[in-house]
């Protein structure tokens, strides 16, 4: 059976998600939950990168998306990230979704959905909240299997090690959940 032709946008989204996945894997070096993000500029090149550094920095706000937004703002010399796309391996939490709105990012591409804490449609929908003055276009489920697997493997290993603090939730219909991304 022939697959339908893939659009250029889909191919690029997967290419960008692979870069976010590389960031997520690098978070494992500091025993951080493997979540990664990149910000892609209007010309399609990466202008910011971030990975979860909550453990590395002892900082409850050191989420991949926030660090990627800061990195991109520094690179572009502006807090406004007009025309940029934020690509992240797990659905953003309420804090990160708020940061995305404040940076005026017009588009988010996400890998796995987080049905315990996601704020891009799962629990809350901060990105498309009509009462706010900025709406974000959301594309979900890009390389979802790979993004979920990385998280599930991490929590499975932690369970074996007897460290339950991070709290592995079961994979729900929308994939893994409650990772605090
Ligand atoms: Zn977050």
UniProtKB/TrEMBL annotation:
The keyword Metal-binding applies. InterPro entries: APOBEC/CMP_deaminase_Zn-bd, CMP_dCMP_dom, Cytidine_deaminase-like, tRNA_aden_deaminase. Its EC number is 3.5.4.33. Residues 162-181 are annotated as: Disordered. Keywords: Hydrolase, Metal-binding, tRNA processing, Zinc. It catalyses: adenosine(34) in tRNA + H2O + H(+) = inosine(34) in tRNA + NH4(+). The keyword Transferase does not apply. Catalyzes the deamination of adenosine to inosine at the wobble position 34 of tRNA(Arg2). Belongs to the cytidine and deoxycytidylate deaminase family. ADAT2 subfamily. This is tRNA-specific adenosine deaminase. It comes from Kocuria aegyptia. The gene is tadA.
